[in-house]
Write a structure and sequence with these properties.
The protein has 177 residues and is α/β, with parallel strands linked by helices. It has seven helices and five strands.
């Protein structure tokens, strides 16, 4: 199977040459690590989307209760605002459903490139079990996979997280050019 062609370079926009990247996927897939590594390579700030959740949403997740669409809409609007106001920027956001990605695109003020970090439940569960200090419990992983509507090649760059971080970053960068 051949890889799909690279997506258009979002830095070539009429809005002043701004790049808006969203590193997306279920909890534990590596959004923060990949986003920070891309930030270092591209010289573009990285924003942690988890920091944009309301206190109520964080408390709900910490208690093991999955967020509803109604919980997510204000958060997605804040994500879009960061993309609009701080571009060029890289932002980590689960963006699990197409409707969420559409909402982000509609409010971002310019083209957005989504980078979907895809991996098996077993690999992601192992990573979540090994991390500390994050409010998202492993118990919510199934709800993340249940909500996930994987983007097609026309919507996102999809990479397999079984690759090591350096290989992931190189793959993403090669697909961005």
């Amino acid at each position: 199977m051949t890889a799909p062609p690279p997506l258009p370079d979002p830095s070539a926009t009429a809005g002043g040459g701004t790049r808006r990247l969203v590193v997306m996927g279920v909890s534990g897939c590596g959004k923060s690590s990949v986003g920070a590594a891309l930030s270092a390579r591209l010289g573009i700030p990285y924003v942690e989307g988890d920091a944009l959740h309301s206190r109520q949403a964080v408390a709900k997740m910490r208690a093991g209760v999955p967020l509803t669409d109604d919980d997510r809409w204000p958060w997605l609007d804040r994500v879009a605002q960061v993309l609009r106001d701080r571009a060029p920027v890289i932002l980590g956001c689960s963006a699990l459903k197409r409707a969420y990605r559409d909402r982000i695109r509609a409010g971002a003020g310019g083209p957005v490139t989504f980078v979907h970090l895809s991996g098996s439940r077993a690999l992601i569960a192992a990573r979540m079990a090994a991390r500390s200090g994050h409010y998202m419990p492993l118990a919510l992983l199934e709800s993340q996979f249940a909500a996930l509507e994987p983007p097609g090649p026309e919507e996102a760059i999809t990479v397999d997280i079984a690759l090591g971080l350096p290989e992931l970053v190189e793959t993403i960068l090669s697909r961005l050019s």
